[in-house]
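To whoever is on call:

I kicked off a structure prediction for a single chain this morning and the downstream step that reads the tokens threw a length-mismatch warning. I double-checked the sequence; it's 88 residues and nothing unusual in it as far as I can see. Pasting both halves so you can look.
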Amino acid sequence: MAVLPSNVTNGDFKKADAFINLSLPRTDGSKCKLGDTGIKLYVDKADHIALINMFQDNPESAVELFRKHLIIDYREANVAPAALAFGE
């Protein structure tokens, strides 16, 4: 298990301890990175430290496990939420 600096802060900003970057291949062989910063991981969250340790201990195996178990949920930002069930 690796020891990472624990959540360096800069004012109200909490710095991530690690990142998982996602990208898609382009037809020219380059990559299209999804998101500006990747998925931020923090050592003060048990699930995150488990992911960090998994990637540090065996990166190749971790990538395959991550791919196998990843659940993708797509939502549009401009969709209004459903009305409350008890309504008017």
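Update from on-call: the warning came from a stale cache, not from the record. Cleared it. Sanity check on the structure: The beta strands are 9-10, 13-14, 18-25, 31-41.
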